[in-house]
Each structure stands twice: as structure tokens, then as C-alpha cells.
Amino acid sequence: MRIYMDEIINAVCLNMADRKRVSPTDVEVQLAWDEEYGYTAEVWVQGRSQYLVEANLLEAIEQYVFRQHGSRVFRSQIKLGLDEEIWADIQM
Q1: 21-31 core/surface letters (b: 16 or more CB in 10 A; e: else)
Q2: For residue 31, which of 81, 73, 68, 65 has the smallest C-alpha distance?
Q3: Cα 30 to Cα 51: distance, rounded to the nearest angstrom
């Protein structure tokens, strides 16, 4: 299964909304990749900015797949990639 940037953003929004106890619509996410840090996201919740590293993104995707697709996956089964946009391949 492959999920694309929009679904990854949704996964991060839902994850951060749960953590911060806010509505998912109160969360903004911008995904990025660079050579030094790899896959990251900048997240804004109630006017405050926070950076997430790849491990945080994998956790959000793991929870998203369980909640939205009913499948239990582990971080070792998720591989992030980049073409024109960031995507995640998930081994089921």
C-alpha cells in the first residue's frame, strides 16, 4: 500500500491533534526533506511551531493506518520516499 503527501499530512494532523487535545483543523503541517535531517515536518498548533523528525512521522503514519484502514503496521514496515512529493510505502 502506498500513501501520498496529503494522507501523510492528514496522519500528522490527527496525531498532533490527539497529542495537543485540539481539533485536527487547528493543526497545520509542512513536510520537508533535506540531506542533513532527512524527512521532517514543521507543525503549527495554536500559533506555536514544532519540528518533527522521521520517527515522529512514522509513528503518525502507523497510527493513521491502524485507525483509518484497520491494519496494524510497525515502523519497520513503512518506507518514506520522495519523487515530486513525499510518499510512504507500507508493507502489509
Answers
A1: eeeeeebebeb
A2: 81
A3: 10
What pTM value is reported for the model?
0.93
Cell of 45: 498548533
Q: Collapsing DSSP states into helix, strand and coil, what is residue 35?
A: coil
Cell numbers representing residue 65 in the block: 493506518
Tell me the per-residue pLDDT of 55-73, one tens digit each, with 9 for 90 and over.
999 999 999 999 999 999 9
Give the bridge partners for 43, in sequence order. Answer: 29, 50
Print burial letters for 54-83: b (CB count within 10 Å at least 16), e (below 16).
bebbbbbbbebbeeeeeeebeeebbebeee
